[in-house]
Design goal:
The chain is α/β, with parallel strands linked by helices. Helices cover 45% and strands 10% of the residues. It has a five-stranded mixed beta sheet with strand order 1-5-9-8-3, covered by helices on one side. A hairpin with a 4-residue loop joins β8 and β9. α2 crosses α4 (156-174) and α5 (177-187) runs antiparallel to α6 (192-218). The two termini are 29 Å apart. Bound molecules: zinc ion. Zinc ion is lined by residues 38-40, 165, 169, 200, 203.
């Protein structure tokens, strides 16, 4: 992927050094029931305690925190993430403008280990995630080592896809889709996992939409890049992850979609560049 020298985002909050300015100032109060987070992969994969996720989903009383950004990252990985984020800003700003709307840029928090968010306590073991309540993407960069070594998905465009997927959740939030899904979830019913799958596959499709327009505008793709992202999409399918962890494959438990579905929707976005083509909520053929 060609990214060196491209614009870096001013929306990165680097709190990796811990202590100091990042993450300790307390504001707000307990988190309301029903706060949701949307992650890249299913929770059990990285060995996160399900109770931690539960605590995050239902509040748990963690104080809301405003993280104060440090200086922009100067390390290679930090600059990479910042550049990809900037590229998503450019693409989504254009697409929103074309649709007669304005795009509010998300912020991205680089953390290490654990982080407090408006959605509750976040952990590196959850993988990258987006918190709709504070409109921030959270990532511990050690996930990229996991992605490469444990999940078998190396490559910089695979890493960019991870960011673009989480930004896809922010786009859904901006479009009001997250709220609709959350209301459906609160109403209950047997369909909660199905709604989650549709939300996640749409985020994959939006990641592809970003790739399409970034390529058109800036020719970022190199030989093998698309294959890297398609491989990553496959490796983090619910069926692949359950198999890799030695568990039985249980389709009813899927929250993110199968490998084939994740590849299909990323490819759809990448090929068409069209938000409309990403309507995973109104198709019978996921
Ligand atoms: Zn997701």
């Amino acid at each position: 992927m060609r990214w060196e020298g491209n614009r870096e985002s001013s929306n990165v909050e680097d709190v990796r050094s811990g202590g100091g300015r990042g993450g300790m100032g307390i504001g707000g109060g307990a988190i309301g029931i029903g706060t949701i987070v949307v992650a890249l992969i299913g929770g059990a994969v990285l060995g996160v305690n399900p109770l931690t996720l539960l605590g995050m989903m239902s509040g748990g009383g963690a104080p809301q925190v405003q993280t104060a950004p440090g200086p922009p990252p100067t390390d290679q990985m930090g600059r990479f993430v910042s550049t990809v984020l900037a590229d998503t800003e450019d693409v989504w700003k254009d697409l929103f403008t074309q649709g007669g709307a304005s795009y509010q840029e998300p912020r991205l928090v680089l953390f290490r280990g654990a982080v407090r968010t408006a959605c509750g306590a976040g952990q590196a073991a959850m993988g990258p995630f987006y918190c709709p309540a504070d409109q921030k993407v959270y990532i511990d960069l050690s996930f990229y080592e996991t992605l490469k070594s444990r999940l078998g998905a190396p490559g910089d465009f695979a890493q960019a896809y991870v960011i673009a997927h989480e930004v896809g959740h922010h786009v859904q939030n901006q479009l009001g889709i997250t709220d609709q899904v959350e209301r459906a979830r609160l109403r209950g019913g047997p369909d909660a996992n199905n709604m989650s799958v549709r939300l996640e596959l749409q985020a994959d499709c939006f990641a592809g939409v970003w790739g399409h327009h970034a390529q058109n505008a800036r020719q970022i793709l190199e030989q093998g890049d698309v294959e890297e992202a398609m491989n990553a999409a496959s490796r983090i399918g619910d069926d692949a992850l359950q198999q890799a962890s030695g568990r039985a494959v249980v389709p009813e438990s899927f929250t993110h979609g199968t490998s084939a579905q994740r590849q299909k929707w990323f490819a759809t976005g990448l090929k068409t560049g069209s938000v409309k083509a990403c309507d995973t909520f109104n198709t019978r053929n996921l």
